Known about the structure:
The complex is a heterodimer of chains A (about 325) and B (about 375).
Chain A lengths: L4 H30 L7 H37 L10 H5 L5 H27 L6 H27 L10 H4 L7 H7 L2 H25 L3 H28 L18 H22 L12 H29 L7
Helix pairs in contact in A: 1-2, 1-5, 2-4, 4-5, 4-10, 7-9, 8-9, 8-11, 9-10, 9-11, 10-11
Chain B lengths: L1 H20 L1 H37 L4 E7 L2 E3 L1 E2 H8 L4 E7 L1 E6 L4 E6 L12 E4 L2 H6 L8 E3 L7 E8 L5 H4 L2 E3 L2 H8 L5 E2 L1 E6 L5 H11 L3 E5 H39 L3 H12 L4 H33 L6 H5 L16 H28 L2 H5 L1
Parallel strand pairs in B: 6-10, 7-9
Antiparallel strand pairs in B: 1-2, 1-12, 1-13, 3-11, 4-12, 5-6, 7-10, 8-9
Amino acid sequence: MIFRMPILALLLVATLAALTALWSGAFALGVLRHWDLTSMARAQLRRERMTELVSTLFGAVMLAELAALLLFVFNADRMAALFVGAMCAVGTLNVNPWGFPALYLKIAVFFAAVLWLILDRADRLGRDYPLTRVKYAALLGIVPLVFGDLVLETTYFLNLRTDVITSCCSKLFTPNNPNLANEMAALGPGLSLGLLGGAGVLLAASGIAALIRGRGYALYAAAAALVFAMGITAIVSVISVYIYENPNHHCPFCILKPEYGHYGYALYVPLFLATALGLGAGMLGQFRAVPSLQARLPGLLRAQVIWSLGGFVAFGLAALWAIARSNLILFG
Amino acid sequence: MSTWLNRQRALADFTLAAMGRRRIKNAALVMVYALVVFLLASAMFFAASLRHEMHQVLAEAPELTVQRLIMGRQDLIDAAAAERIGAIRGVSQARPRLWGYYYDRISGANYTVMVPDDPDLMPPPGEVMIGEGIPRARGFTWDGAPLFLSRHLGDLQRFNVARTFGTDSALMSADLILMTEADFRAFFGIPEGLFTDVVARVRNPNELGKIVEKAAIANPDLRFVTRDDIERTYQKLFDWREGLMAALAGAAVLAFVIFAAEKASGLSAEESREIGILKAIGWDTRDVIAMKLWEGGLVSFGAFLIGTIAAYAHVFVFKGALFAPVLRGWAVIYPDFTLTPQIDGLQILTLGLLTTLPYVAATVVPIWRRASADPDAVMR
């Protein structure tokens, strides 16, 4: 199984990311212990130069990880034909117990990567690198995630057995089995759309307030997280149903398939990016008091909130369009 | 936002002009890079088209094939088995088939001999319909030349050719000989009432698993092969061949990585002086890195474009002449068929990651080393 081009690409990304993370982690330890901008020592000068390399390398790796998340899902969907019982990515990920953990960890790496890139960008805005310690402490937090990703992904791909009968998405996302996926599927369409709408109003209000007052970014980040959770729930309980035009099919992965025009990407990509930017705004909002950032950080924060709001609007429009063009009638 | 865009535009502008000054050196790099992309892309495009063809061919195949096994080998099956299979609820039709292989000692090729079930394709007694590969293998010089088949030394059977199939169905029919049931039984010596295998169609494909389960319990001496089994096996085979090509191309990628790293670390005196001057007039390390990343990005983009287009032409215009024997398999009579392009985002994304990532990994450290050096040290 491992001799498949997308799998080779994914393992290449994971291996390079782990190697970079290992090396950057060792460097981060040195920064956390000895970083002192006032020092004129040779070692400090070297460290300052090295930060440029680490930023560039780690930035490149994180960008590759973002692409790898897309590739992972795309590939899982495409491989469904190889497994008895699998119809979409759910079946492929269910072939062995490491599939879904690998996906969740990849999503965690995605969010960590975006937040770290945002932190890195903010750090470079100040002439005295005010966030260097925070940035490298965060990097140390990402290292185990990246390693876990490599281990889980390799275990998953090495243990793909085509003689295993896996379960299809229609088994996982039905209101009969007791687990989270089915709780989401069982939520009534009206209720889940209402919750999403309510969260959206809260998000818009907190976003506009943050733009006008220049503070309250933490609230905006919380609202973004809420919309993310409600958005995923709504995709499982209503939006996917509209796309399939079948009131019993709730799978959040089948919407990625070509039969449905890859519509899922129009929902997920803006939702994930907008959420990550919103969380990033909440994180950066904590550093508004840093003196060397006061000139340029507010502008960055504003831009992030605007882009994040734009992403959520795109997600909302995609969801509305899915409902509007569908031939399925759930209400009335 | 606009300042950021302006900065990037200026950097791209500057980088392009700088690359233009070292045209030959950069062109050499792009060409080697494009060759690596070309290798991988050819393997991917070819395998994807083969998978597509396989899918198309099997879409029309019956859902279920039933064979009789004796001592682990396939044996002739009697007509009663077809009736037993057909009686299972959910099976819409089960019919026995007569087909086999004939080794032609004259051309050294294997032909597939079959009794058609479509009355339109049934030749008159004593005549055959043949695929386009057979006249080619036999070197028929005129239309209507009869086909002589010899089963052993001293034996010669004459069949008139009723029709020759065209190349549009070559993948299926290149090595095919169709004859009537009576001719088939006489030619191969098969007794009445025995057949090669049984194929069954199923009303609802979702019930196939259950039908196979029931039929296997009732007929322990029969083997049931579903269309999905065949498709999965082919898919795995093509995946494996593609992966093997990729692993071979891995050596090329590695060589390219070493080449790129070497090139990035061994800057010419002129380039070093350029970086020194830039730093002396106020660029900082970050700007130089950004400029070099732009350079890498432009090189990658150009190589990716050239490599992918060349691979497209290679596979779909020149029929993958370089890798065809490895990827599609081989035979004395090989069907002459054209591949349909099957390219999607998954392939492009995979290709991008597999080629650009090693390049970035190879060049980042040398770039940083140059960019962070003191201006006087680089210029000296």
